[in-house]
Amino acid sequence: MVACRPTCAPIPWQLDERDASGKFVLDHGGDANPDDSPGVLDTNDLILFMASDAGDRVPAAALPAGSLSVTEIQVTDPRSAWRGWAYLLRYATAAPQSPIRYVRYDPAADRLEGARVALGFAHGTPRVLALVAGDRAGENLLDRMKIRASASFLWGLITVRRNEDDVLTLPVAWHEGPIRVVRRERFWIRLSWRWRTPIFSADTAFYRDFAEMPVTLHLNFRPRLLFADVAIRVSLDFRDLDGWELETPDGGAFLRVDGDMTADKLALARQDGRWFALHGPDVTLVQTLALSPSLRGVRPRLYYRESRDLGDPPESVAGALPEIGYTLSAWDQVASGDHWFAANAYALPREQSVGEFMDRLRIPLHADAQPLLPDSAEAAERNRTQ
Hints:
Beta-galactosidase, Chain A, domain 5, 2 domains, twelve-stranded antiparallel beta sheet, 3 helices, 28 strands
C-alpha cells in the first residue's frame, strides 16, 4: 500500500480475512479459527489502512515500478471537500512494507497498546486502562469493568445476583496487524450449579485511537419464560480521576470529578445511556453504547457513582472516582434469536470537541476502489520499462 505526499512511499496496512461463516480469521491462541482459503483476498475479506495516511492522487506512471497490478482507493469525507488516495500494488515477489505499527499486543499480559491508551484484560474483563503519555503514563487508572446482573426465577421465589468474578471464559484468540488487533473471547456467567447464561462472544478490535467492542449472543428462548426483573449494569470503576470533567449527551455543564455526589450527578441516572466523555489533562475518553434492533425493547440508562471510600465489592480498591457506565433493564420484551450490543471507546485529543466528534461518527468516510493497471504479463512488462 502506497501513498504519495508528494513522494510515494509505503504506508501501514493489513488484510483481515473472514472464514466461510463470516467470522474474522484469528490465527493465534487456543480458540483460533482457520480460513478456508488462506492467503487469498476473498470478497468478504477486509483491507485496512488509516485514512490519515492517504495522500495525493497521482497517475500510475508516478507509482513505484515493478508491480503486476495497481488498484486506486479514494477516501472521501461526505461532511467536507476532503479526499485522499492510496494505491494497492501487487508484486510477484515480496513487496516493500512500511515499518510503522500503530498498535501492539502482548498475549502473555493480555494487553493492547495504541497511541494514547493501553487496555489490559484479566478474568475475561478489562482490568487495566493506562495512558501512554503524560504525567500519569503507565499508571493503571481502572479498578475493573464491573458486570452486575440480577434476575428472579421460579415466579420470583429465587433471586440470583452475579458479578464479573462469576464470568467463565474460553481461551483467547487473536490476529495482530499494524492497523488493529482483533481479540476474541467467549464467555458465560455462572448462575448456579445447574444453570448458566448463553455463551457470549466478544470480538474486540483495537486501533490506534479507539476500540470497537461488540458482544454477540444467541438466546434459545425468551428470557421472560424463565426469568423476571432482569437488570444488568456494566460500568467502569476508575481508581482516581480526581479533577477530570464529565460530559453527557444532555448538553449541560461539565461535572467535575471530586468525590461529591451532587444533585446534578444523581440526576444522571435519568439520562438516556448512549455515550459519555471524561475530559482529563492530556486526553478525553469517550464511550458509546449501541444495541442491535432486536434489543430495541431494552432500556439503557446512565449509571454514575462517586465515592472516595464506599465499597462495592468485588473490587481491588474501595471507592470509585468515578464509576460510570450503563444499566440495561426491560429485558422481558426480548425475543429468542441472535442479538448484539457494542460499547465502543475512543481516546481523543483534549482539545477535540466531543459533540463535533459524535456528528462525524454518524456520517462515516466513504471508500471507492478501481483498478488502474491490469494483472497481466503485459502490464508487468510496461511497469518494468517505466
